[in-house]
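Office hours follow-up: a student asked to see two folded examples consecutively, so here they are.
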Amino acid sequence: MKRSSIVFILLALITFKSFGAGSITKSESSIKSLVSTTKIDESKLKEGDLIFHESVSEFSTAIQLATNSIYSHCGILVKENNRFYVLEAIQPVGKTLLADWIARGKDGKYVIKRLKEAEQLLTVSMLNKMKEVGKSFEGKDYDSWFAWSDSKIYCSELIWKIYKRAANIEIGKLEKLKDFDFSSDLAKKYVKLLYGDNLPKNETVISPISMFNSELLFTVSKN
């Protein structure tokens, strides 16, 4: 099994366990402390920007091993009442205040990327269309099995489908679960937990690192 399977299987668990129904690794007080010290120049940000970070959990480590990447979770920026939020697939899909989202990641580190042709393509009407697509996913359960259907959704799948359905833009290369690397003990552990002996090897998937490495994007901000 290759690099694609672990990523999603673990991605699901990472997001679901760390941010949703499972336990959160960071203490509530430490998160509040990070939020209070997080400095973000929001004047440089735009709706539609993508944000990536490393989740704080064992599942995140498994994803990193499977994808050879430090980024295990992502979301898309939206603006409401002059404040930026991250629309993300956790449990359930919803919006998180940007500062809170950043503080939830490891050491408060993040990278924000933008479509290279955003000025031309992401018009007000297009952004509204993207928001409508995003809204259709809000409240849906997190997809721990990384299926390509819309009944449940995982983080990179949410972003990919918003851009594809609203703007017909494909950010990142679609792969199959069989393309990922499940050779590590940690990866094997969660593959077994999720799928038993029936890994759907030909399931279509999109990983955070595939989107992060897309030639359609450029880096706007990082720390």
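And the second, which I mentioned at the end of office hours:
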Amino acid sequence: MTRVLYDLCGVDEGLRFSPYCWRVRYALAHKGLEVETRPWRFTDKAALAFADHDKVPVLVDGETVVTDSYEILRYLDRAYPEAPLLGDDLAEARARFLRHYAERTLQPAIMRTIIMDLFNAIHPDDRAYFRESREKRFGRTLEEFHSPSKGLSQLDAGLEPLRGRLKEAAFLDGDAPAGADYLVFGCFMWARCVSSADLVSNADPVHAWLERMLDLYGGLGRKAMRITDVEGAYR
């Protein structure tokens, strides 16, 4: 039976930008598992009714349906134990920390930097929903929230733990990538797909890690459609 991943898309069905879906796509590639990705939009809630969920990623693996990117990684380790993503309990505890670090430190800084690019990359039918839901969350308009200078300053400070680790090893998980790398890298793929903003200096050890991550699995990340590839969508 075909393995299916419901994956957020933007103005073009090929523009897949969810940081959480990218985590899963890299995890599946790490395991050597083939998957069919199905485009999904923010307002297409009915398409996920079968999963009793209203957000992606949603993975359908035979008769099993799994939601939430982290839970999908845990499921993949249980169902396909070769090439572990998270490892033993101690390693998983470390991965949980990095999950929260990515979501609570890196993503807010990136969001502040790229939010208007993100808004323009979203399908026109989803923009009213996105604006209303995010402005409610932020307590201000998207335009008021948007502040690249503050976002980049916040991101630069937030990257210090990564710099320390990446001066010691090629990947967050050591000599080879695994779950910790994918949990953090997803937010950089999110930014790469929807924006041309330079988030990290070429001289930064984080930049070298990003380049290595983009080249993994036959250039999975590097080959992904970007907003700059969508005709008429970016100026």
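Two things to take away from it. The CA atoms of residues 16 and 210 lie 18 Å apart. The radius of gyration is 17 Å.
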